[in-house]
Amino acid sequence: MNFLSHTLDGAAGQQGNFPMVLIIVIYVAIFGALYFFLIRPNSKKKKQEAELRNSVEIGDEITTIGGISGRIVAIKEDEDAIIIETGSDRVKMKMKRWCISSVDTQKEPTAQTTEKKGFLSGLFKKKDQ
């Protein structure tokens, strides 16, 4: 009787491990999906916004997160601030760099910029090249 009960306990223990492994795999898949659909795009967006804010120059037309539009007349690196000039009466306002929402100045592409290649761009080449 002891041998039979020991054998049945071993078989039940082996079958009980499979659902636990399956649950762990499902949790890993859920966290992986959350990372690729929520966390990664958000961090990319924040990185692009930081690059935008650090690449502004004097003379750029910007819009702040509050909706104020103006032209940058000075950049204070030590305070991490900008001074913008708004309207025809040339009112100047000092603001932090983080308040920049968008840069409205169209910059000309330089010779160093290359065209982006898509996932299948190597398969479809233009005939004139």
Write the layout of secondary structure elements.
Blueprint: H1 2-54, E1 61-64, E2 69-76, E3 81-86, E4 91-96, E5 100-103
Antiparallel strand pairs: 1-2, 1-5, 2-3, 3-4
Any key phrases for this structure?
129 residues, alpha+beta, SH3 type barrels, 2 domains, 5-stranded antiparallel sheet
Structure characterization notes:
There is one protein chain. The protein is of the alpha+beta class. It folds into two domains: 55 residues; 43 residues, SH3 type barrels. It is 41% helix and 22% strand. It contains one helix and five strands, in the order αβββββ. A five-stranded antiparallel sheet has the order 4-3-2-1-5. β3 and β4 form a beta hairpin. The longest helix has 53 residues. The chain is elongated and about 75 Å long. The model has no long low-confidence stretch (mean pLDDT 80).
